């Protein structure tokens, strides 16, 4: 292809030398406007997963009051996060094998099926099971959108679009609690799930109509053994954090057996991934220092984000007396700074190609914000708690989307799909562990505090650990019981956020070891720092299709114009047909 392109260039040059007008350059590929429209379709799909996470937080107290007790609360979130984590690498592999568009559409359909059945659940057990189905689809939404974005846009331009993606995700985070609270107060909590159906229909239509990616030959094999071992290890470990000290003693046979199962299956997974021809998670990628650091940071960010969005609404409704709708409004101090900082840092990264300082700033702000939130009690004003949450939101804004960009830019193009799915996987695993462990600590602290204040008999007035968490139900309790319960919930909230503050100090430390690998863009990247394992200069492969079906950076820069009007530097005809977008 390269030889024929060079011959064509020579022929055009000879014609120009002979006085004839040179042939017009081939069309520069999809217009920037078309790329933006396609990105909007991807963002709608991502909004489904993010909106669902945020909606469930403000609806949870009402759900717990209707379907079951506090002991099951964390599993509504954990079941979703578990199947999301387990399915994420599978979706990434299926996209590499059979094409990203088809697998992306399938993930939307499965997600919508889980949404409808979750809304129809008649018991907490049913809801947990249907949330697991919903999470199975959600696993393909994030990794699919990020991988398709990597196919369409170079890393240098990707910072801008990831900033937009962060903005959309933040809008979902902001709108989710508000929508969830409003729906719960006026239509019932089931509509917190049914609302996904019209949004999903729009996403399906947009992706089917606008996005055209190359079809895959269908070769390759899925590492089912590795996937099963990884899923078992994650599930066993989450069960340990969820059941240990609550359902079973830490020294019980069940907990010790689960620990042994988690260790054995994780060891088996590592052995299989080293030997299998097509591993679901190539272990060699972890030799890349930036990638390894980002997966660690992503794990801890997931731990904090899922936990904060689950337990802050509980504090606001049970302690501050907010309704479901108002608790959504009270989350704005954490969500608005997150959105604004994400968009600004994304655009700044695109403008100057620098990103290393942002994880350091974010890593400093997050533990400070969590520590401040851990100081809130029944006497803390909403203004004060809002200021504390704003610090956390700003810190998360510096990191949420840049982690994906840094991971993708640090690996070779053929590993972008793996990098995307692995980054999403570890963030989701962190969320699973975070909600499970925080839920265990929260329930234990609430139960212990109630018993200390009222005795075992008085604590039973709220259903043990507390069956009702919404403000309306708490208002019906005797004053002494209600006051004790408010203090107990505050104690539980303090404990979980203090844990988050301690753990996220690691984020700040890890951020200092990230190296500034130049972002790939229209020009050949400078040589990467030694030891980073970053992608080599791919200019020689301009416009060719990588193993994952991605278009390499300099070729795609020409396809999207690399931010210019002329699209100068476009490769010869025939090299940009790998990816097309309906105009």
From TrEMBL:
The keyword Transmembrane helix applies. The keyword Membrane applies. It is a multi-pass membrane protein. It comes from the Bacteria. One of its GO terms (cellular component) is plasma membrane. Residues 523-536 have a biased composition (Low complexity). It holds the Pfam family MFS_1. GO terms for molecular function: transmembrane transporter activity. Belongs to the major facilitator superfamily. TCR/Tet family. This is MFS transporter. It comes from Streptomyces armeniacus.
């Amino acid at each position: 292809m390269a030889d024929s392109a060079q011959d064509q260039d020579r022929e055009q040059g000879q014609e120009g030398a002979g006085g004839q007008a040179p042939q017009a350059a081939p069309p520069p590929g999809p217009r920037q406007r078309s790329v933006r429209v396609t990105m909007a379709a991807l963002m709608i799909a991502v909004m489904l997963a993010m909106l669902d996470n945020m909606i469930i937080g403000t609806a949870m107290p009402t759900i717990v009051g209707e379907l079951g007790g506090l002991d099951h609360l964390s599993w509504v979130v954990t079941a979703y996060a578990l199947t999301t984590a387990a399915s994420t690498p599978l979706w990434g592999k299926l996209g590499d094998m059979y094409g990203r568009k088809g697998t992306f559409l399938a993930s939307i359909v499965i997600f919508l099926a889980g949404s409808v059945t979750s809304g129809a659940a008649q018991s907490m057990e049913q809801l947990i099971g249907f949330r697991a189905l919903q999470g199975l689809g959600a696993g393909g939404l994030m990794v699919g959108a990020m991988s398709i974005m990597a196919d369409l846009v170079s890393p240098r331009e990707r910072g801008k679009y990831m900033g937009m993606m962060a903005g959309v995700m933040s809008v979902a985070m902001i709108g989710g609690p508000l929508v969830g609270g409003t729906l719960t107060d006026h239509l019932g909590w089931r509509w917190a799930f049914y609302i996904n159906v019209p949004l999903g229909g729009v996403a399906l239509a947009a992706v089917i109509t606008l996005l055209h990616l190359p079809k895959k030959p269908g070769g390759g094999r899925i590492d089912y053994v590795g996937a099963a071992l990884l899923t078992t290890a994650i599930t066993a470990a989450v069960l340990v954090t969820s059941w240990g000290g609550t359902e079973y003693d830490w020294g019980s046979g069940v907990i010790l057996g689960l620990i042994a199962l988690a260790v054995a299956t994780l060891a088996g997974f590592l052995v299989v991934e080293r030997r299998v021809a097509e591993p679901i998670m190539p272990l060699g990628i972890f030799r890349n220092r930036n990638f390894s650091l980002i997966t660690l940071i992503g794990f801890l960010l997931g731990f904090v984000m899922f936990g904060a969005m689950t337990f802050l609404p509980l504090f606001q409704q049970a302690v501050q007396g907010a309704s479901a709708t108002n608790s959504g409004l009270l989350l704005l101090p954490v969500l608005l700074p997150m959105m604004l900082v994400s968009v600004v840092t994304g655009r700044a990264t695109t403008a100057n190609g620098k990103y290393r300082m942002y994880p350091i700033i974010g890593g400093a702000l997050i533990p400070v914000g969590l520590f401040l939130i851990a100081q809130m009690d029944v006497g803390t004003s909403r203004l004060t708690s809002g200021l504390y949450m704003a610090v956390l939101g700003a810190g998360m804004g510096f990191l949420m989307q840049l982690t994906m960009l840094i991971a993708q830019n640090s690996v070779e193009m053929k590993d972008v799909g793996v990098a995307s799915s692995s980054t999403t996987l570890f963030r989701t695993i962190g969320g699973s562990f975070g909600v499970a462990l925080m839920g265990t600590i929260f329930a234990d602290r609430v139960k212990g505090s109630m018993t200390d204040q009222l005795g075992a008999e008085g604590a039973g007035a709220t259903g043990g650990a507390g069956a009702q968490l919404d403000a309306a139900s708490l208002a019906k309790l005797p004053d002494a019981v209600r006051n004790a319960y408010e203090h107990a919930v505050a104690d539980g909230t303090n404990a979980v956020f203090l844990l988050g503050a301690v753990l996220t100090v690691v984020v700040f430390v890890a951020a200092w070891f990230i190296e500034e690998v130049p972002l790939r863009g229209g020009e050949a990247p400078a040589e990467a720092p030694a030891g980073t394992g970053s992608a080599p200069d791919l200019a020689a492969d301009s416009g060719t299709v990588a193993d994952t079906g991605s278009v390499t950076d300099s070729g795609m820069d020409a396809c999207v114009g690399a931010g210019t009007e002329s699209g100068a530097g476009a490769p010869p005809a025939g090299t940009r047909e790998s990816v097309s977008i309906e105009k």
